[in-house]
TrEMBL record:
Species per Swiss-Prot/TrEMBL record: Bacteroides thetaiotaomicron (strain ATCC 29148 / DSM 2079 / JCM 5827 / CCUG 10774 / NCTC 10582 / VPI-5482 / E50)
Species lineage: Bacteria, Pseudomonadati, Bacteroidota, Bacteroidia, Bacteroidales
Record-linked SUPFAM superfamilies: Metallo-dependent phosphatases (SSF56300), P-loop containing nucleoside triphosphate hydrolases (SSF52540)
Protein name (Swiss-Prot/TrEMBL): Toll-Interleukin receptor
InterPro entries assigned to the protein according to its UniProt record, in alphabetical order: Metallo-depent_PP-like, P-loop_NTPase, STAND_NTPase4_dom
Record's keyword annotation contains Endoplasmic reticulum: no
Length: 905
């Protein structure tokens, strides 16, 4: 058997594989999915950011009874290009040792197979010999090592003599230390034999030529943000890192989603010679480039990392050689320079720190392009080399590092909780899911609507702050503590301000923010800044202007833009500090007038957010009373909907309910997948809305639209105050606030119903007047009617969701019930039921009562069923409980075709 015999097609191999059909059927039954016969297959497993690949070589594809040593053939050429070795650990598994392969072919199949296996494998496991062996193979030329193990068969031999055993391998993917535990049948039990310890070489040492300096790799993998966990474990970057998305800024495509890519693609992609990634100060540029460096080693590359500040002249060899000596340990820089460019990647961190002008930078990059297959660069978002590079260089990708979207934000939170869990293997899937959801919602509360960009450092800082405060006590002081911690961290860690001076700088920032707010300004010039400092210094002790300015710029809390204006780096800093000042004067006439002004203009994002932050700083009842009043004003003349069977809103949408009747529940949904799909949808929606972000001109808007914005904002503000302050507000006041929040939502829906009714009639008459045929007029009226009904129903669900997200909290369940009982309408009962199932376990007895009450109310029943389906799809619910829930609602529980029990090999 040789390559000529098997030919270019796979017909010979496919024919021989037929006899193995029982094995492939067995594998299919285990995996729950069809497995096609093959001579090579990969099994990939992702273990907490570490990728392990099992390479299964079917060396028995042409095996026969009474075969001879050297009689088999394995077609390496047919599979070698498909082998993926980009893993933390590569384990090769096969039955026949290479000695069974034919050494007399033109290529020497025995040597060909051994050379391939040993070139990439960390561990090799084979059978057939039925004898336990363990050895280490070292290539003296490349210093590549792999551990080779063989074992006994788990069976009796033909002579009925006991000869049976098995082995267990445990490998720590972090320190790469492994243990082999052999077991042998002693006639009674399988007894453990002497264990064998082995140590796999570090990643970077098993590359063919250049060995990475492990101390340097370890420094890249260190977490720069200190994270404290329950067991004081030391967290590495790779344990928690999530690759951010990149927004393309050059050569924009027409399709929206084509302008956004995952940053991980640049490690293996060869589409671009130069990749330039710009990012804000806290966007995680250095962490991104460090992770790319580490992962490029898994892609069999020999990367080099250099900081932009190392390029002070046009000389490139000296800084490159210095970087090489620091990062590699077994060969010379000259050997590296002469090595194939295809295997080399250059990473330049903070190109903006290079002491070169734009022309020199371009010349420098042209020189470097001749030395590396790819250059990946990070730079400041205000660095002006980007536009020059875009216009003068081909094969270049320019992009902006984006904050984490909803899906990736959720993944980061999952990573955090897995690392923080004392025993991650004992926690149930549902409890872990609930912890992730709770943290996600709390993080969302902190991030707000564009208050804080969801860069990993902010998300992790928020999680860390919540972890350090008293558990389950996220009220005013706790939320305030988290925001305060972010500001404190920026001053202490970034600006290196002494702890005893932190209060001085926070007070300075608060007065500066309030001064801008009072003057209705967003930024100030250098002269205005100096004037403010002069006035401030007359009332408070403060360092010199130069020292304060430089420290605040160094912290990133204050930014000096390219137009030479000073402004706060992020909205949350400005709003938080303005609110801090307002809270100190809330008992004064000026403070109360400010609160009244903010409530009157609650539809404006800036004012709404400042109100939320004031609630973080103050417990004054005046603030609560004013926000309740603000929520009552919009649509105070509109009757709130009730969703009673014969109510006006039900009459408006009753036809569409029958049109989209859905009484089927899927039985085997995966809550994680459902959650990911939901988060992906939110990400896509935000991308669509991204280009529509502008400040509304409320002065020129109709009063009804302003009232609508005020109503929606009131839901958010009152909800936030309730959640943040639930531990310091009386139950009676909480009841009053939640009741008014419900009624505001119901009046808002009622307002839309009124608008829809009049608009629908006007539009129908207008279009029908242009049509002559009677049947066409009837069809037009029906279509317009269904369109407006669908829009109204979706709007109703949207407002319900707004209430659930705004005020939802598991600690307030009794109050939600009390409010629903007091209002005593289907709408109120549905809202309270929805909140409780979103933030807790569904009660089947309560579901039965609601079903009985809504059985003859199609609209209320449709909303109830939708809420229950959402609960079932987004939580781990046992099958028998799903059956009881489906039976209660008289819905069908089905298992869709094509769903596999296991979705990943």
């Amino acid at each position: 058997m040789n390559y000529d015999y098997i030919g270019d097609d796979n017909s010979v191999i496919e024919q021989c594989l037929i006899v193995q059909e029982p094995f492939w059927n067995f594998e299919s039954s285990i995996n729950g999915q069809e497995t096609k016969p093959c001579i090579y297959k990969e099994y990939i497993d992702d273990i907490q950011k570490e990728v392990v690949i099992f390479h299964s070589f079917n060396t028995a594809w042409m095996s026969s009874i009474n075969e001879n040593v050297g009689s088999l053939f394995y077609p390496i050429k047919n599979i070698e290009e498909t082998i993926n070795t980009k893993a933390t650990i590569n384990i090769s598994v096969f039955h026949h040792h290479s000695s069974w392969l034919n050494p007399n072919t033109e290529e020497n199949n025995k040597h060909e197979f051994s050379e391939l296996i040993n070139s990439f494998s960390d561990v090799v496991i084979y059978g057939h010999e039925h004898e336990r062996q363990g050895m280490i193979h070292t290539d003296l030329n490349t210093h590549k090592e792999c551990y080779i193990f063989a074992g006994e068969a788990l069976q009796m031999n033909q002579a009925k003599k006991v000869h049976s055993g098995f082995q267990v391998f445990i490998i720590n993917t972090e320190n790469r230390i492994g243990f082999n535990y052999p077991f042998h049948w002693n006639g009674t039990i399988y007894s453990q034999q002497e264990e064998q310890k082995f140590s796999l070489k570090e990643i970077g040492h098993n590359n063919l030529d250049f060995h990475s300096n492990q101390a340097f790799l370890s420094s890249l993998n260190d977490m720069k943000l200190p994270l404290f966990f329950n067991d004081d474990k030391k967290i590495k970057l790779k344990d928690i890192f999530i690759y951010p998305d990149i927004e393309k800024t050059n050569d924009l495509k027409k399709e929206l989603y084509e302008n956004y890519v995952d940053s991980s693609i640049f490690i293996g992609s060869s589409n671009y010679k130069v990749v330039l990634l710009e990012g804000e100060n806290q966007s995680g540029k250095s962490s991104l480039i460090n992770m790319m460096y580490l992962d490029s080693i898994l892609h069999q590359k020999f990367p080099l990392l250099i900081n932009g500040k190392c390029f002070k002249k046009m000389e490139i060899d000296k800084p490159l050689e210095k970087a090489f000596i620091e990062q590699y340990e077994n060969k010379s820089f000259e050997e590296y320079s002469q090595y194939s460019n295809e295997c080399k990647i250059l990473f330049i961190d903070n190109l903006n720190s290079a002491e070169l002008n734009n022309k020199s930078i371009l010349e420098l990059l042209k020189k470097l392009e001749n030395r590396f297959s790819r250059i990946i660069i990070t730079t400041s978002s205000i660095y002006n080399i980007i536009s020059v590079l875009e216009s003068t260089t081909k094969d270049v990708f320019c992009g902006k590092i984006l904050p984490l979207g909803h899906k990736k934000r959720n993944k980061l939170i999952e990573n955090y909780h897995r690392l923080n869990e004392e025993n991650p293997y004992s926690i149930t899937e549902q409890i872990f899911l609930e912890k992730t959801k709770d943290s996600y919602e709390q993080v969302q509360t902190f991030l707000g609507d564009k208050l804080i960009p969801s860069y990993p450092i902010f998300v992790l800082s928020i999680l860390q702050s919540m972890n350090l405060v008293k558990p389950n006590n996220y009220e005013q002081t706790s939320y305030g503590y988290c925001y305060q911690s972010l500001i404190h961290f920026a001053l202490a860690a970034k600006a290196k301000i002494k702890n005893e001076d932190i209060d001085t700088y926070i007070n300075y920032l608060s007065e500066l923010a309030f001064s801008l707010f009072d003057k209705k300004k967003k930024s100030l010039s250098d002269i205005e800044f100096q004037e403010f400092h002069k006035n401030y210094s007359a009332n408070y002790i403060a360092p010199s202007f130069t020292e304060v300015r430089d420290k605040l710029l160094g912290s990133g809390l204050l930014v000096y833009d390219e137009d030479e204006w000073f402004h706060f780096g992020y909205n949350y800093i400005f709003y938080f500090l303005v609110a801090q000042k307002i809270a100190t004067i809330l008992t004064e006439e000026k403070g109360r007038k400010i609160i009244q002004y903010l409530c009157k203009n609650i539809q404006v994002d800036k004012y709404a957010n400042i109100l939320i932050f004031v609630a973080h700083h103050s417990k004054d009842s005046f603030l609560i009373d004013e926000t309740i009043l603000a929520s009552m004003i919009p649509f105070d003349d509109i009757e709130p909907i009730t969703l009673e069977r014969n109510g006006s809103f039900n009459e408006l949408i009753k036809d569409i309910i029958q049109e989209f009747k859905d009484d089927i529940i899927r039985s085997n949904t995966d809550p994680i997948q459902e959650r990911e799909k939901s988060l992906e949808s939110r990400d896509k929606l935000e991308l669509q809305m991204k280009d529509n972000t502008y400040e509304e001109d409320y002065q020129n808007m109709p009063s009804e639209i302003i009232s609508f914005y005020q109503a929606v904002r009131s839901l958010e503000i009152v909800g936030q105050i309730i959640k943040n302050r639930k531990g310091s507000i009386s139950k009676q006041k909480l009841h009053e606030m939640i009741k008014e929040l419900y009624l505001t939502a119901f009046r808002t829906i009622g307002f839309l119903g009124k608008i829809v009714k009049s608009t629908k009639e006007e539009l129908t008459i207008s279009i029908q007047s242009k049509v002559e045929k009677a049947d066409s007029k009837s069809e037009i009226a029906e279509r317009i009617n269904l369109f407006f009904q669908l829009m109204s129903f979706n709007f109703c669900l949207g407002i319900f969701s707004k209430v659930i997200n705004s005020v939802g909290n598991r600690d307030l369940k009794p109050i939600f019930d009390d409010v629903a009982n007091e209002l005593n309408t289907p709408a109120a009962k549905l809202i309270s039921f929805s909140i409780k199932t979103c933030y807790g376990k569904l009660s089947i007895p309560e579901l039965r009562l609601l079903y009985k009450e809504f059985e003859n109310n199609p609209v209320a029943l449709r909303i109830l069923k939708a809420r229950v389906k959402s609960y079932l799809y987004n939580n781990y619910v046992k099958y028998d409980e799903r059956q009881r829930i489906a039976s209660t609602l008289k819905m069908s529980l089905i298992q869709p075709r094509g769903n596999n029990l296991i979705s990943r090999t």
